[in-house]
Amino acid sequence: MRKALAAGMSLQLDCASLFVCSGMRNPLLEVSPVVPTALARLPQLAANLFFSWHRPTRALFEDLDRELWKQCGGNGRLMLRCMSQVTLDTAATDEQYLARYSQVLEAFDSYVRSPAHGPDAPLIAYFCAEYGFHESFPIYSGGLGVLAGDHCKAASDERMNFVAVGLMYGQGYFTQSVDNDGVQCADYREHDPRDLPVEPARRADGTWLTVSARITGREVAARVWKAEVGRVAVYLLDTNCPENAPADQDITHRLYGGDESNRIRQEIMLGVGGMRALRALGLEPAVFHLNEGHAAFLIVELLREHLLRGLSFNVALEAVAAGCVFTTHTPVAAGHDVFGHQVLITHFGDFIRELGVPIERFLELAHAPAMPGLFNMTRLALNGTRHVNGVSRIHGEVSARLCADQWPQIPPAENPVGFITNGVHVPTFLHQTWADYFDSVLPADWRERLRDGDFWRVIDALPDERYWNTAQAVKSQMLASVRERLQREYTRKGLSPAQCRHVTKFLDPERPGVLTIGFARRFATYKRAALLLRDRPRLARLLQDTQRPVLFLFAGKAHPADEPGKQVLREIKQLMLLPEFVGRVVFLEDYDMQLARWLVSGVDVWLNNPIAPLEASGTSGMKAAVNGRLNLSVLDGWWAEACSADNGWGIPPVNVRDPERRDALEAELIFETLEQEIVPLYYARNAQGHSSEWVRRSKRAMASVIPRFNNRRMVYDYAQGLYYPAARQYAKFARDNFAGAKLLADWKERVRQAWPQVSLRLLADPPADLTRGGRLRLRVAAVLHGLAAEDVRVEFVARRSLPESNFERPALSSYGHEVRDGLWTAMLSASGESDNGAAVFALDAQPVGCGQFITQIRIYPWHQLLSHPFELGLMREL
């Protein structure tokens, strides 16, 4: 079938396309209309994912045939091949439609043709296993993919020099259906490439670009597809090639599909094949960004390239790592990809032998001390990069602790794992009704001022009544869309209209005044979708209040292999059919980007109650707040940074060991917040029919979240904090035939050999008390075992303990610019003296501030070519 689908791209019969799927009783005949000359660029608009965030472009297709648009899942390419010729011909003579068409083309051309910022800006290559651009392009499973899609969109908006690499899945992720017993059924559907916004990537001579990687002793080919995301090109590899063995054709068949063998083959193709695709296209990125460990094999391909230049292994590793960035999204050790050594050697042994390094040395690249005998992709990424980040402040701290043994002598709070908090692509997720409202009340350039916090304070001054009416109009549209979706589902399942009316009785777009709470995300067990179901009588009382009713909307998929997750889903689905909950708890199946956009823009409260600190970031709540919706969330991930007294509600994690007691206590906190604060506040209606305090909080949610948690801020932080420093560092290393990389590699080897014998001792006891204006004088002897004084730094560190200070990890983009309250550091200078062969270092400094300080004197290796001062993981202290 997959061969037939791919071949279908070239089967043409005048205006008809015919392709035959093996196993089908009858072949499928497709008769396509001819796009009129006046609308000749509609196919181009359907092919660029600019349509996924530019509403006027989408409206051009939707307004041609709304029902067909829905049936095609918002897929403009498929729609253009299936619509009536009469419809197209009529639109081609409609002056109003043609005027809108011209306006869209003008906006599109202006956008895609505007030059990149800085003609000499370094090219960034971004690698990820999944991308969520739009529901019609199903090569994503969840938050990681949607974030990657948003990253590409924001890079396009920021006019960055940026290219992305991924895999082209024949089926992608599964389509979900759930029966009345709550049993999830996973349906995998083949996707005809003609239906997707991709085209074959072409070589200079016009031939379809194909690359190969050696896997399991044979060359595996991959064709390369190109998707255009505004100004950004995304290259996707597809192993469904006729020259491949059947097992190899299936490598890219299913997102995260198959066994361990297929997963490692997918990751080899992503990293090695993706790198080779960029080279074949003539692209020379200055920086490589690994978005999660799935792409870490690109490090090995880069090593191979540098070894071919004649560099030694250690020098090549320094050069590669200087130009690579790694983002981890997983806050638990079990979430990192690992492969047994024999699995790795079976699939990748030929490549390792080609490198010409001992297998033991290669395996060290991915060794985690706590997981012996396994090849850990996160550790490969950590060893092959020098720029590492988590995706929120808390996640940065969790990841630093999780990976602490990578830098064993460095306190986790200071090791190289930093953080850049995620953001969302506002043009994709801000509802069009809000965008229209902003167009009418804000300066015309508001879309270009998404990072300007001062600008967005203007929202606080918007008239309450019009603001509320806009929010309710968005909610009405959500209720109408959700009700129609449920009606389609019930009709498809053969249920009666009466049954459907019973379930959708509160989904009334004419009466949007019912407090509506949304919970939609992956049904992983740590997200605790069923937390409030622990106390069903209390939940029923909350929902059944006739004066202040509450509606719960649930959506989400459980991984097909996640039985506990599927059990949670069953519990919720069965609950919605009980008499006391029917119509008040609604589960919406097949959660995708379209449903996500409806829910985050339309519910009143966005509920999130993960087990802290397992929520790395959690971007769905950002999307809700961008639309003025209020978060009720455990203080984890991004919400711990965003929550304030007036923009939502934060539930502090309960610090107890027993999971049952923790869940019970946190459920109690959520119920109390709902009963005592949220429900009364929402229904405290004034003469104009709305709650003034609710509107104030809604405005604060928008004004506080839009500028801080949008993707343009995020990619700016990546550029300033990671990309450009990495590009500069690699350029330093590469000069004069990689003289810098050689110098640093040799220095590191010398330091590692000497370090076990390095030690410190005080030459005089420091004072225990100082008065304001006094000076701290220290003299320390350092045994350097052959190292020079300039090879180390001896540092005095004082952390104020009273009054207490907050020693939060600074964001990567702020390093060097942020004074950390209560932290006093000072370098001791080499005095030129010697104490029985030891170098003497001295300090004469005035204290910073008053209070009680916990002090430390420490020594660590230092070289001006280090990307991070502690990247060797070596330190000694008194």
Provide an overview of this structure.
- The chain is α/β, with parallel strands linked by helices.
- Helix content is 38%, strand content 18%.
- It has 28 helices and 29 strands.
- Strands 3, 4, 7, 8, 9, 10, 11, 12, 15 and 16 form a ten-stranded mixed β-sheet that branches.
- A hairpin with a 2-residue loop joins strand 26 (823-835) and strand 27 (838-845).
- Helix 8 (143-157) packs across helix 28 (711-754) and helix 11 packs across helix 12.
- The chain is globular and about 95 Å long.
- The protein starts with a helix and ends with a strand.
- The relative contact order is 0.08.
Strand content: 15-25%
Compute the average pLDDT: 92
Computed Rg = 29 Å
**Derived structural class:** alpha/beta
Q: What is the CA-CA span between the terminal residues?
A: 68 Å
Shape: globular
Please report the number of helical segments: 28
**Mind describing the biggest β-sheet?**
10 strands, mixed
The beta-strand count equals: 29
Share of helix among residues?
Answer: 25-40%
Low-confidence stretches: 1-24, 814-819
In brief:
With 878 residues, the chain is α/β, with parallel strands linked by helices. The protein is built from 28 helices and 29 strands.
